Fold:
Amino acid sequence: MTRTYEKNLNLLRERFPELHDTLLRHRPEILCQEISTPGGEPTLLCISANTEPCFLHSPDDPAREASSLIEDYEFRGEDITILLGFGLGYLPLAIARRMDPEHRLFVVEARPEILLKACQLIDLSTLFSDDRVHVFGTNQVQLIWDELERDKLKLMAGQVLKLIHPPSRRLFPKAYRNVEDRIERFVCSIKSTFHFVEAIGSITVENIFTNLLALADSAPVDTIFGVAKGHPALVVAAGPSLDKNIRQIKDVEGRFLIIAVDAALKPLMAKGIRPNLVVSVDPNPINLKKFDQIPSRFLNEVPLLFSPDVYHEIPRRFAGTKFVFGEHNPLSRWGVGLARKVAEFPHGFSVSHYAFYLARAVEAEPIIFAGLDLALSGTKDHAQDCAVTWHVDPAGKDLPTVPGVYGDRVTTIGGFINMITLFERQIAFTDARCIDATEGGALIPGTQVMTLKETIDLCGHGGCTDFTELFQKIWSENRLKDRTKLSGRIKAGLTWLMDQADEVRICCEAARPILSSLLDDLECGQQAEATIAEKIRRVNQIADQINNHREFTKLIGDWMREVSVKKYRMGFELERTSDEDRKLCMEVELSHLFIERLTTVVETIKQFGVPVLESL
Structure:
């Protein structure tokens, strides 16, 4: 073992232990022949069974070739680069030399034997010891997602530059196409979450405040954790394939824990099936349609699991057993905390994710999906009898396709692709076996595809358990008995919050005219420096006053994300700007945006918080 090889492997083991172990265990499947170039730098001639022999790098000057491939690119601090194809390391080394200090580089290599050759032939110590650089195999997509998630701000504020090492792509097109698609799906899902939170800000605030009183009649979800240990759980969604096997669900009542998403409640009721629990999370008012025309007697007998962000009329429809789980947004967490501590689930894109999280938390085995198409079927996008709250024309142009459960390609939409990606990620962390018995729709990686009949034959021989009765008993024992104390805590909390909002609003009202005037001054360029300096001093003084309300501003942070992203991006733009006047203009513009957005959020807090406070 050469000194270079030993040093590279030690660094690889320290930074990327899973990748290091893969390299040492892997059996080569392609022939890599080392060839010296005129400059003394090695290249590889790669020979595989499926492609023509190919030089991995220039046989003349590999380092110069790498530099020329990226000469037109900038690697700015706010951006991330995904490089598909490590090769012998010439290209990632060239990028690392040109990267801004805050830039991030993710390098993905399909073939362990190539990366091992790189460790043997090239000194990669500067690359492997650089915390800005991450190296992965194409089989480590989950780890790539984890690292990308830590850089959410970059994903929103900057660009994700996708570079592909051409010879690597020619040699292993399928492997790189697969990882490229999965990375793109994940980045899209992160961005969709960001925009969704911004879009429903006022609706969510109203729901959080109005649902505070519903907490009194609910038990924490963690009181039912583990209650279905070893029992099969059937998660019923409302996709069009549910029509194929919904009648079979009747056969497993009492044998399976049946968890329905809210949209599936009507189809199940129409077939005389009563789920053991229904889950509802959507904050939009249209979500109430899913419960229209369902008799109150039926709703009172079905336990509900709800999010504190759910449309506030929904918990009111359920007079009986209710459980609540915590959300990750700070204001929701604060509101629930006024009542008691409640377990939180991971983020979900849809109610079906939360139904799955519940099945996992109660320790069901296996977890079975029905009606979870995540794709469009013929002319339908919902099951029969389902309340339609959205519609997509399956024949619409430019709709994406994804792999289907039967090996075909199925038509879907962007939101479903985000859901598939999240299911894949969460199933990878799930001990229970996950069976997709939808009998149609998109393939969810990590699930075993079976028909519902096959699943029932396999898992339906256990004893009977009345989970509905069990949930009712646990709820009765764990819901809050003393509403007066809870009402007092909510009143004290809301009083503090409204007082904070009033004080911050006064600051905003003082800052707005000064900032508007300052922007005019900087635009016309005719005001004296002393006048501008005085206005800046007054704005900074107000900013200090707002900073004294950090606890409040943290609670509303989810609705200030757009400003946070622009602030992050502007930090890098300011570093690249030498014009001091332009820098000042940019900073004032950001302050103006911050105050305007803060004013809007504070007004929303007051609009929906005051009526709840007055009702106590």
Remarks:
- The first helix runs from residue 3 to 15.
- The longest strand covers residues 31-36.
- The chain is about 50% helix and 10% strand.
